[in-house]
Amino acid sequence: MPTRVVVADPVGLFRAGVRSALERAGGFVVFEAVDEPTLLAAVQAERPELVLLDLHLPPLGAIGTLAHLDVASGPRVIAWALDPEGDQVLAALSAGAVGFLTKDMKADSMVRGLHTALDGQAPIRRSLLISVIRSFQKAERRDRYGERAIKLSSRELEVLGLIALGTRNRDIADQLEISEFTVKRHVQNILHKLNVPSREVAAHIYRSVFGAEGTPRFAVTL
Amino acid sequence: MTRVGGGRLRPLVAIVCFAPLMAEGIASALDGIADARLLPADVEDLAGLLRTLDPDAIVVDRECRAAHAHSDETGVPLFVVPVESAGTEVPSPERLRALVVGSLLAVQVRS
Do A13 and B86 touch (CB under 8 A)? Predict the structure, then answer.
């Protein structure tokens, strides 16, 4: 019984390349999808065992598309992209993809990847592993820091935000219209609550949680 | 179609690709109209290889100095089919096929 595969990719030449490689390998029936609606229709009509899903599949990309696929009892989804960031791979895996391949791989490697997924394992390009691990560690650290940052009051967060921008205590006092003594007290509280030895480390935590420009990456409950 | 140089019965298209599966897709788009020769973009002495192959057209999936130089030198048509689709339109297999056929015919007419 051949394996049914849907190749979901907006680039026709890639779809043609995968189709050609799989037909040469044998044992596969290939269906094609150019975007999410055609993918969902193909999945419903053909009941494929596998989906090869482009990271940038229109209109929502792989992460958005995965939310509309039944990854628990439906096909095994393998995401792929040309040169993905670790964060993108991690996001696709978190959203339900069982593996991640890259578009610069050779045809036989891609076929092996699909067989790996069929065997219930997780095909992932070796070259992606280190960036995925780094992204995972970064996300863990951000969560951990985030938990500590939640302990801060809104005024302390305000002070820490200014520290992260390199602002001195006197200037923080001027900007917030409080005394320098009060700023120092806030700084001591911040260091105590975050359990860090210096304002530089506290600033690093702030940037890890809120980003370099101070853009919040999660909703802080105050 | 007869080949002007090399005495080939069908045109030869060199496909110089960074992404082998893209190359496979391009080759399959040209199936029946040309013989495709797949060359990895990082192959050693690509310029020399192109001179030896003497293709009738070249397709690349990203900018390639050796392919451009060969095209400038010989007048062989060169098609850049960007492997990264963001912001650029990648031609469909049918469109690429039509482009290559058109340009091979133009070369034949000119010669």
Answer: no
**Spatial CA neighbour of A13 closest among B85, B40, B109:** B85
* Strand, coil or helix: B38: strand
CATH of region B12-110:
3.40.50.960
Query: Locate tokens 């696929």: which residue?
Result: A69
SS (H, E, C) A32-47: EECCHHHHHHHHHHHC
Owner of token pair 């506290």: A202
pLDDT 10s digits, A70-109: 888 889 999 999 989 988 998 999 899 999 999 999 999 9
* ipTM given for this complex: 0.85
With tokens 């210096």, the residue in question is: A198
Asked if A107 lies within 8 A of B22 by C-beta distance, the reply is no
Q: Do A104 and B20 touch (CB under 8 A)?
A: yes
Query: Which tokens go with A142?
Result: 């951000």
Q: Domains in chain A, start-ordered, CATH in brackets? A: 3-132 (3.40.50.2300), 150-210 (1.10.10.10)
Percent of chain B with pLDDT over 90: 53
Nearest to B79 by CA among B32, B28, B15: B15
Tens of pLDDT along A114-167?
999 999 999 998 888 888 888 888 887 777 777 777 788 889 989 999 999 989
Probe site for chain B from A5, A11, A13, A30 (most B CB atoms < 10 A): A13
Domain ranges of chain B: 12-110
Supply the pTM of this predicted model.
0.74
